[in-house]
Amino acid sequence: MDISSKYFAHFRTPGPDVIKQMWRFWLDIRRVGKARELVSFIWWEINHRLLIYQFRRRYIQFTGHAGLSITSEEASPTGDRITSSFLAENGLVFRAVTIDWKFCLQTPDSHWLGSRFSHPNGLYGSTDHSQSARLIYEFQDPICSLFISRQQAIFVCANGVVYKSDDHGVSFRAVLHFSSSISYFLFNNGMTQLPDDTLVIGEYGSIWLGQTWQNLAFLYYSSDGGNSWEVSDFLIRQGVNKHIHLVKYSPFLQSLLLTDGDNKKQLWMNSGLADFKAKPGNSQTGWRLLTQYHHQTGGYTSMAETKESLLFGSDYLGGTNFIVRTTDGQRFQKQVLPDPYRRSPVMNMVTRQSSSGVEVWAASYSCLSADARSLIMCTRDSGKTWTRVLEFDGTKNEVRFVSSSPDGSEDLYLSITEFRGPSATPCHRVYKLERTL
User: According to the lineage, what is the superkingdom (predicted)?
Assistant: First the structure.
């Protein structure tokens, strides 16, 4: 149940039945466990309306570059190249590639592995910079996510099952069954590997069972390279009612970070990299809750880091969204996305190694209204300032990163989806960031 989408139109243009809609809205909020989130939404809205964020300089600082509008005639998703003032100034361009990647990962030998929009059940490999690809393996169900370990084991999630290959995709075997067939781990954010090679996965999915959510907030970990898995339900025992957003190891903090959704949306840290089943407070090596209250923000869906800081992107569809920055894992600087991007959650972040240093790219997206603009943006100073690169209307287009971000890579792929109406098939184009000089 997407509360924001269900009631957005009613409250945007209130009608004579607004009181009845407000009452139904409150009942739905109580039913799905979002009362505390609603209070936070109201608090953040008051801060925005009263210009408190402005007085405290809490808004994201954008550079002078204007973002190129994808939803305009000058930048159609059918074009072979997309540029903007920022890209042109830095000798860069988004150039269309032949392979319509839906997800793709760079292998240790600099090849590419992934699934395609045109064939989501197939695992493909490319050795020529995504100009051609060969089918490596075909699953019975669409690929939902994938991951490559340091030992070059390939993990693919499909139909609630995680499959593993130790022979570069020639064969796969099921190694983990999630608690539902629609569950998976979020690409680029929901699976990670620790320094001792322990693998960790957070289960994600949304199943509404009449009056409540099916609880999928299970954490899985493996100490034998992903052949066998143990499960932790510590989040469920702490009252989390839905799923896990993010599970990532941070070399910067030398800790495992985890965020949950949906009723609490908290941020957790495990610096001991152990005791994954332990309740918080029972062990110095276990989980530590970093956000005690909802209005502190948490439940992030994206994370990226540089040598200077760690960045998180918030997940508050229809509310106020933030990019949160920390240099020590204790103090958090919250920067608000200004209008017209404020109501668009920061769905993903990736890092890119450029000639000028490490860049962090962030993708915000909302499909609620044409007024809630979505944005692809970039920072070169660890989140102190951001540059708008591409912006779009989420009711007409979706722009998302389709590649992950291995250390030291300068490659970045994104897809642009054009929605052509309720009965028409969406059009997908994939672009790679390349140098023009």
Answer: Bacteria
* CA 237 to chain CA centroid, nearest Å: 25
CA-nearest of 337, 426, 419, 424 to 373 is 337
* Cα dihedral value 255, 260, 265, 271, nearest 10: -20
The region that residue 390 occupies, defined by phi over 0 for left and psi between -120 and 50 for alpha, beta otherwise, is: beta
Structure tokens at 296: 């502190």
Burial of 80 (0-12, 13-18, 19+ CB in 10 A): exposed
Q: In what order do the strands lie in the sheet with 255-261?
A: 243-250, 255-261, 267-270, 288-289
Q: Outline where DSSP puts E strands in 327-436.
A: 333-336, 346-354, 357-364, 374-379, 387-392, 397-401, 413-418, 427-435
φ and ψ at 184, to 5 degrees? -160, 180
Q: In this structure, are residues 65 and 86 in contact, taking their beta carbons and an 8 Å threshold? A: yes
Could you tell me the pTM of the whole model?
0.92
**Beta carbons within 8 Å of 112's beta carbon, 6+ residues apart:** 99, 101, 104, 105, 106, 125, 126, 127, 129, 130, 133
- pLDDT the model gives residue 314: 97
Angstrom CA distances, 131 to 27, 99, 126, 388, 432, stand at 52, 6, 8, 28, 11
Chain-wide mean pLDDT for the chain?
90
What's the one-letter identity of residue 232?
S
- C-alpha distances (whole Å) from 302 to each of 190, 307, 314, 362 are 9, 17, 7, 9
What is the H or E stretch that residue 29 is in?
helix 18-32
pLDDT of res. 2: 52
Q: What is the mean pLDDT of residues 134-151?
A: 97
Closest CA to 122 of 107, 135, 103: 135
Residue 391, phi then psi, degrees to nearest 5: -130, 155
Residue 146 pLDDT greater than 80, yes or no: yes
φ, ψ dihedrals at 120, nearest 5°: -65, -15
- Measure the CA–CA gap between 429 and 411, rounded to whole angstroms: 17
Cα–Cα distance for residue pair 278/262, rounded to 1 Å: 21
φ, ψ of residue 380 to 5 degrees: the values are -115, 5
SS3 of residue 48 by DSSP: helix
Mean pLDDT of 295-301: 94
Beta bridge pairs of residue 335:
323
